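In this supplementary section we document a worked example of the pipeline. Step one takes a protein sequence of length 174 as its only input; no multiple sequence alignment statistics are reported here. Step two produces a three-dimensional model, which step three serialises into structure tokens for compact storage. The input and output of this example are shown verbatim.
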Amino acid sequence: MLCEKPIGLTSTEGQQLVDAGKTHPNLKLMEAFMYRHHPQWQYARSRVADGSIGRLCSIQSHFSYFNDDAQKIRNNADMGGGGLMDIGCYNISLLRFICGTEPLRVVGAVEYDPDFNTDRFATAILQFPENVTSTFTCSTQMTPWQRVNIFGTLGRIEIEIPFNAPPQKQSRTW
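The serialised model returned by step three reads:
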């Protein structure tokens, strides 16, 4: 079962799906993080894993767009709107995908839209095992931009359009 993100609005809702999945062992449950299957992410993950950039030190990511339309679902708090649920989850997912583990600590700051009561700006620092410290920023009311930089002791990987690479344009990774 491929679920649109967020898979639930609360951890309880997410756990209910996980529990239901356990009763059907042939059922695969996954959020629709299509970026993980794009060749640029397979390349980045394999370069980190094979040591091409040395020891992984840090990942920095940014994902933003501008939307202040009250009619859009992304500005409806009751429907899971806001930056973290809509696009910040990509930043968090990619950190876990590249690091291959869960963060040990997280600290962040959030700014809420006074009219929508959704988060319109969030930034966080996540510390992973082996002293990998990463940052991300996401926003639903900032100029459109997305970029990821993965830093190691010997090199860096930069992904130009990391989350929704256009099919009609070549994706660039350095």
